[in-house]
Design goal:
The chain is of the alpha/beta class. Helices cover 38% and strands 16% of the residues. Helix 23 (610-614) links the parallel strand 19 (600-609) and strand 20. Helix 1 runs antiparallel to helix 4 (70-86) and helix 12 (317-333) runs parallel beside helix 14 (357-370). One of its GO terms (molecular function) is hydrolase activity.
Length: 694
Amino acid sequence: MIDATVDLVIFDCDGVLVDTETIGPAVVAALAGEVGWPLTPDVVRARFLGRPEAYLYEQIRAHATVPVGPEWLRTYRDRVSEAFAAAPHTMPGVTGLLDALDARGLPYCVGSSGSHARIRHSLTHAGLWPRLAGRVFSADDVAHGKPAPDLFLHAARTLGAEPARCLVIEDSPAGVDAALAAGMPVIGYTGGPTEPAALAHASHGVIAALPELATPDGDAPPCDAGCPPRPTESEHRMRDLVRRLTDPGSFTELAVERRAQPPDGPIGWPGYDATRTRAATRTGEDESVLAGTATLGGVPVVLLSFVFGYLGGSLGERTGDRIEAAYAAALDRRLPLVSLIATGGSRMQEGMRALSQLQRVARRAAALRDAGLAQLAVLQDPTTGGGWAVLGGAADIALALPGAQVGFAGSRVRPPGADPAAYTAESHLATGQIDAVVPPDALRATLTRYVTALARPYPGTPPPPGPLTRAPLPDTGWAAIRAARAAGRPRADAYLAAYFTDLLPLGGDRAGGLDPGLRCGIGLRDGRAIAYVAQCGTANTPAGFRTASRVIRLAGRLGLPVLTLIDTPGAAGDAAAERAGAGPAIADTFLALATAPVPVTSLVIGEGGSGGAMALAAAGNTWATPDSYFSVIAPELAAAILKKPAADIPHLADALRLRPQDLAALGVAGIVSPPPRPERQPPDAAPPAAPGNR
């Protein structure tokens, strides 16, 4: 019944793999009675089978006649654990079924409503934990458990399988509903207490015995005992992303000498060799990362691609060898490094020898940075632990897939009550830790745009953009202020769109901050790359200045000239900005610009408010549009300091000499002028000839 259309089998745990469904309901019934809600095990099974613990707890609290707090849930877990320890064993046929799936090289995992601790407890006492460790997915991992599809979709996404090519084995109506909502085929299993009628809506029928799943038609085995695994299909699944992102036939794997290790690895972890053998059988790979060279849009790159199906994409000594080889190849050939990351972090079976790989990677990353070579990362689900820190977090450009789990703390090691939304790609984008979230169908084009841009820096100094209005130079200082503050004046987005043909965002300060009043990125002009930092007319925050510094320094390392667009009434001066380090952040932007090893062009397009504007002004190459001003202080603030009445503000604007023509006279900035108007033709003049017809 499991045919070639299936790439991943997802098992429920209790009642499918482990015979516990008679135990849990009895414990719940007893505990519910203790708080005044009389239930029988059958009623518990009907109401809660397949539901997450959070739902059970909410219902107990709602129906109890005495106050119920978190201690009830702890008591429930303790009693269930005690009962499971005394009784659990595998459901009939489980071991043979899993052996058959291993022989076919077909991956499988657990998707259960139980907590990670409870699932591990059950599988350990049933003797199944060693073969399922690293492939267990719990309702703890998602915002909504069964019957929502989140858990099954998370499992499929993590293991690189399309939902339609997953097969779910469930014994609860809620689990069947979840699978159907996820768009996955589902088989109902009635080998436990669940009645067949309750699972009649399962898309692929109902079975009473697990061995029925081991054969395509329920009778003849798919192959004899010597049937080889399916490395070609597994290899296809794990390398599919590489094939989809790179130019056809361009990926060539690097030759890396295989490190000799003692039995069961550097610290002798019991069963480690057998675990690696099973991982290789499942994935068709012999380590958790691929390293090679390829081209994206014709641009040569070095590519690292993690294989999460191999021990959770974890980093061990041999992983470190391959990563180090990739960095060395990028340095020797002066190529950008692109990392496709999906990892749970360092490999515990290799102990501190695994953790030390982070130092190796960091040294290589620093060498690449010093050599002026770009590092790009694509964060898949999940990207956690040290792999996120030294490969993703240290990348010059970090992109992520939608919904990817990203964070230093993986789902099983977070503090109790941690907000799961904080560990998502979208949260990291909102807090300035990554540059963009890119849908899978746009990933190849987006990556290609970035690497192509980085390979073609703009030669020389960028010309200043021309003004987007035909505003005349202002007669007075106050007229200049009013023109710069006009609501309809063109802002940064309009100037960037007019100046560049493509914009590639670089967002955030990499320290938890994002300023929505700043646009940063890489733009293409005449097919060549220029880094840009553009103020949007607001008071910029310390995060904004830190972002500007980051982009300017990145441009300097990668040899990209810089364009800055100045438009701010001044840096944010509120208490929050002060606590966030406004002074040091602004100072660092001054230093970044002053030491930039690449040409920088600056254009004042609106308000040039004091130090917050001057921090982005290139010394000796700053320009101003006719509808802008640049001032040491706003005239209103000058009046407040001098204790002048409001009527004197326009006169102070004149005294400050802040008009574009004043700036030119002072040698502070040049003036950009609009292009000349086209000559008007007489009404009876013939239309101009089209190009090529003269």
